[in-house]
């Protein structure tokens, strides 16, 4: 395993343990090293405080973990932080919303704006719909109200 990944994993573990302890959440911290980066996860029963509204808190923790790992290793290392499987559940919900928006856009022949979401969430939707040739996606608005729009392809 790349020593930079191992060093990043150690940094991520330290941060996640510190965060869980600091907010008083009873959570086990698991960290896995992969060739392409580090995955950290909070495991426990009541982790809503660590997830936050639409994942805002877990996204912030992930951003901090990435920055700390980068500073410690001097190299960019992919870091993903999750809590109780939130990222997969949210990804499924976002993909379902994207499919529904695409069908509505095609049926009504008009752009459909999704709810405001983070850049990470918008990327999930963009990636999910990118292979469809009947719709296009783009973002509009300013953070924190930036929305992804699904529009029918005209032509």
What does this structure look like?
The structure is a single chain. By secondary structure, this protein is an alpha+beta fold. Helices cover 50% and strands 24% of the residues. It contains five helices and six strands. A three-stranded mixed sheet has the order 1-2-3. A hairpin with a 2-residue loop joins strand 1 and strand 2 (37-43). Helix 1 packs across helix 3 (56-73) and helix 4 (86-108) packs across helix 5 (119-129). The longest helix is centred in the middle third of the chain and has 23 residues, at 86-108.
Ordered list of secondary-structure elements with their pairings:
Blueprint lengths: L2 H21 L4 E7 L2 E7 L4 H4 L4 H18 L4 E6 L2 H23 L3 E5 L2 H11 L5 E6 L6 E6 L3
Parallel strand pairs: 2-3
Antiparallel strand pairs: 1-2, 4-6, 5-6
**Mean pLDDT rating:** 94
Largest sheet: 3 strands, mixed
Number of helices: 5
Strand-residue fraction? 15-25%
Secondary-structure-based class equals: alpha+beta
- The count of DSSP E runs of length 2 or more, i.e. the number of strands, is 6
Spatial extent as radius of gyration = 18 Å
Could you say which overall geometry the principal axes of the C-alpha atoms support?
elongated
The low-pLDDT segments are: none
Order of helices and strands: HEEHHEHEHEE
- First CA to last CA: what distance? 50 Å
- The strand line-up of the biggest sheet is 1-2-3
């Amino acid at each position: 395993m790349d020593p930079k990944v191992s060093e990043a994993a150690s940094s991520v573990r330290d941060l996640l343990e510190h965060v869980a302890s600091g907010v008083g959440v009873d959570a086990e911290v698991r960290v896995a090293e992969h060739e392409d980066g580090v995955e950290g996860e909070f495991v426990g029963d009541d982790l809503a405080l660590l997830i936050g509204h639409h994942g805002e808190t877990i996204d912030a923790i992930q951003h901090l973990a990435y920055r700390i790992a980068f500073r410690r290793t001097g190299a960019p290392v992919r870091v993903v932080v999750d809590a109780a499987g939130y990222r997969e559940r949210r990804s499924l919900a976002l993909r379902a919303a994207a499919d529904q928006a695409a069908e509505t856009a095609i049926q009504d022949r008009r752009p459909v704006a999704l709810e405001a979401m983070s850049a990470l969430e918008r990327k999930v939707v963009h990636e999910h719909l990118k292979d469809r040739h009947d719709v296009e996606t783009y973002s509009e608005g300013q953070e924190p109200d930036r929305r992804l729009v699904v529009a029918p392809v005209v032509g």
